[in-house]
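Work Package 4 report. The design task specified in the project plan requires that, given a folded chain encoded as structure tokens, an amino acid be chosen for each position. We show below one input record used in the internal validation round.
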């Protein structure tokens, strides 16, 4: 005679989809989806910083070109003033040469450092993009396994409902099953319905031997 608890177990077994939906936040695929979204946002933000670094290098190159041009110009003017005997102009030109020479040195040093930083940033930026791509591949893999797991569960409900109920068992067993359903997508994917039926057969056989 079917007990009330047995009927309740079968009822729960046919309505686990709703429970799974409530446990989505514990599903590894849901966690991966959220992590990919965050990684994509961070990668986009990083790309903007890399672009800004490149723009700064462009500005430094422009400033360096202008300072170098003025240095050459003042050096030529210094030579001309000295050869012309214009002492005051030569002094002014010499002061200008020193100022532009110092500026060129500072700008060149800054540009070299920024280029090195940009190279490092570009390398790491490319690594980030590859990482996001790898995670998306993993996402597809988990989606396939989750889909297969859900399909197996649906087929079990029709082909082997007694096994679904058996896996639920007591109240405690049912709670444990529901809690771990989403967290063990890969493990449940590897175990087919046929494998579970073989395990059940083996268990029943062992129980009969004990009774005998």
């Amino acid at each position: 005679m079917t007990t009330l608890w047995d009927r309740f177990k079968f009822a729960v077994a046919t309505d686990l989809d709703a429970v799974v939906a409530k446990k989505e936040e514990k599903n590894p695929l849901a966690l991966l989806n959220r992590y990919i979204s965050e990684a994509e946002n961070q990668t986009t933000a990083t790309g903007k910083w890399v672009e800004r670094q490149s723009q700064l290098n462009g500005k430094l190159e422009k400033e360096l070109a202008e300072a170098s041009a003025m240095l050459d110009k003042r050096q030529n003017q210094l030579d001309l003033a000295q050869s012309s005997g214009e002492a005051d102009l030569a002094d002014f030109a010499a002061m200008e040469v020193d100022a532009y020479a110092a500026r060129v040195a500072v700008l060149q040093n800054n540009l070299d450092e920024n280029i090195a930083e940009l190279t490092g940033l570009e390398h790491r930026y490319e690594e980030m993009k590859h990482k996001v791509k790898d995670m998306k591949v993993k996402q597809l893999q988990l989606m396939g396994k989750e889909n297969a797991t859900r399909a197996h569960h649906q087929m079990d409900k029709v082909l082997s409902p007694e096994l679904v109920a058996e896996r639920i068992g007591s109240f405690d067993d049912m709670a444990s099953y529901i809690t771990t359903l989403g967290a063990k997508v890969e493990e449940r994917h590897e175990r087919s319905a046929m494998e579970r039926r073989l395990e059940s057969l083996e268990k029943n056989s062992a129980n009969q031997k004990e009774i005998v």
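The radius of gyration is 37 Å. Validation will be extended to a larger panel in the next phase.
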